[in-house]
Design brief:
The complex is a heterodimer of chains A (197) and B (278).
Chain A (H helix, E strand, L loop, with lengths): L2 H16 L20 E3 L5 E3 L8 E6 L7 H13 L3 H5 L2 E6 L7 H11 L6 E4 L3 H11 L3 E3 L5 E3 L3 E4 L5 E5 L7 H17 L1
Parallel strand pairs in A: 3-4, 4-5
Antiparallel strand pairs in A: 1-2, 3-8, 6-7, 8-9
Chain B lengths: L1 H20 L10 E4 L2 E3 L3 E3 L6 E3 L2 E4 L5 H10 L42 H10 L7 H8 L12 H11 L27 E2 L30 E3 L5 H11 L10 E2 L3 E3 L16
Parallel strand pairs in B: 6-8
Antiparallel strand pairs in B: 1-5, 2-4, 3-7, 5-9
Classes of the chains: A alpha/beta (197), B alpha+beta (278).
């Protein structure tokens, strides 16, 4: 490679970086959860991927609609965390909830939860994927779960913050309300994104 | 009769063909043995579950996956080579006993079980041969057998024999796979290595904590918690303790795996053309 070419290449990458453009030739972070190639379907029946969240922070959690006690409190925690953000921060922070129970949680079930709890797309995605991918996503997020014979699931209840590259930057198991330390982390990551724009 | 015979010949050709074609460096006959349906009273009792948990028939690799087999896999799927596999899927010690990303070397022999592989890497290997990791219950079901009985767990001699393996030093090099088979035709399930299971992150989801502590820090959802039955089956409980302490990208130098697949696929290869099924 001659020097001129190299200089041009460096310039080109510099331009890409300064405009915060997620070009296909900028490799995804090695430790990104988005390394998992998973296809999901949201509450509107729209197909989505993990990778499409690259470029902005994401709040992610796993739940199932048949869960009467804990899961509604996970949604409360996500809503209250979101409510603690400024409008600009909120605009830059999407929320993704993925069900443990694709067998029972069809699009209609997800839509019902979204409607009842006022979780509107595109800000909120209440999504499903297949069994194998549920296990993989939980594994990548460090979430434990198991199906019980009566149709319930035992699972860790946790809110996870991913940065713009899909890296895990914070977790909280406080549910029902907003965890102040977690909110601070979300604001920090959301601000970085706003500053980069 | 004749068509049956020709189908059998075709089947044999397909099986041999598919077993040899897909390997570039080493040629292995991948042997899956059929495990008949039954039930297991697991050491992992669940107060929402019946005592005996039904197990559907499946097929299991007779031996753990070897270094040679895993080398073929990373040659065919370079994204799983050491140094290339993303940190989300493998930790820093992934395949660290190999001489290089594509060479085994003296400390990783061809017929030794592959170790220092993560759950994600093990899953990917199994998927590459149309299989998956066994569930804990499937593994425990097969592991309950000795050479003559499918459930030897109450035999004190059997328990002592297994425990003696667990007390061996992990500094001693791991032997090659093979050797005595249990009543199902499976080898090395207690000797040699620890093995990943598909639902490693489901084993010790601790008790539903609704009744204790800060209600806003409830960790677990759903009725029914796991408690441990058969506390004297210490060898199997140690496996659960190890597996439930791991993250999916973790590797250790004595943790490997074997795969399972549908019982039917060992008798009906997917490549049989539709007209042959008539």
């Amino acid at each position: 490679m001659n020097r001129c070419h190299r200089t041009l290449t460096i310039l080109a990458y510099g331009l890409l970086a300064s405009f915060s453009v997620w070009a296909a030739d900028v490799p995804l972070a090695n430790d990104s959860v988005y390394q998992l190639e998973i296809s999901l379907t949201n509450q509107d029946g729209k197909p989505m991927t993990l990778l499409e969240h690259r470029g902005q922070p994401l709040l992610i959690s796993m739940f199932y609609t048949g869960c009467q006690f804990v899961c509604p409190r996970i949604i409360d925690a996500l809503k209250k965390t979101e409510a603690s953000l400024t409008p600009a921060e909120r605009k830059n922070t999407k929320v993704l909830m993925v069900t443990f129970d694709p067998e029972h949680d069809d699009i209609a079930a997800l839509k019902t939860v979204a409607t009842e709890r006022g979780l509107a797309s595109p800000q909120w995605a209440i999504a499903r994927t297949d069994d194998r991918n549920v296990r993989k996503l939980a594994a990548a997020l460090g979430i434990q779960y198991r199906a019980l014979p009566n149709g319930d699931f035992n699972h860790t209840s946790v809110l996870i913050l991913l940065d713009a590259e899909g890296r895990i930057v914070a977790k909280t198991s406080t549910i029902g309300g907003a965890d102040p330390e977690f909110v601070t982390e979300v604001k920090k990551v959301a601000k970085q994104k706003i500053a980069a724009k | 009769m004749q068509s049956l015979f020709s189908r059998a010949v075709l089947f044999a050709v397909l099986v041999v063909g598919s077993a040899t074609l897909s390997f570039t460096n080493f040629v292995f006959a991948t042997e899956y043995v059929t495990i008949p349906a039954g039930s297991i009273t697991s050491v992992l009792a669940n107060d929402a579950a019946p005592d005996a948990i039904p197990i559907a028939a499946f097929a299991m690799r007779a031996t753990p996956v070897t270094n040679g087999e895993f080398l073929n896999f990373v040659n065919a799927h370079s994204v799983w080579q050491r140094g290339r596999a993303p940190a989300t899927f493998v930790d820093a010690s992934y395949l660290n006993g190999w001489r290089s990303a594509t060479e085994l070397g003296d400390s990783a022999r061809e017929h030794q079980p592959v170790t220092s592989v993560s759950w994600f890497a093990a899953e990917a290997f199994c998927e590459s041969e149309g299989a998956r990791l066994p569930t804990w219950m499937e593994w425990e079901y097969v592991a309950a057998a000795d050479e003559t009985s499918t459930d030897a767990r109450r035999d004190p001699a059997w328990r002592a024999r297994i425990l003696s393996w667990y007390s061996r030093s992990s500094a001693v090099p791991i032997e090659s796979v093979g050797g005595p088979r249990n009543a199902y035709g499976v080898s090395n399930i207690h000797s040699l290595i620890w093995e990943w299971v598909d639902d490693f992150n489901a084993l010790l989801v601790s008790a539903d904590s609704r009744t204790q502590g800060d209600p806003d820090k409830v960790q677990f959802c759903g009725a029914g918690a796991i408690s441990l039955k058969s506390r004297d089956n210490y060898a199997v409980l140690m496996r659960i303790a190890l597996l439930s302490s791991l993250n999916a990208a973790d590797t250790t130098n004595n943790l490997g795996f074997r795969c399972v697949r549908k019982a039917s696929s060992s008798t009906a290869p997917p490549s049989i053309p539709a007209k042959e099924k008539k």
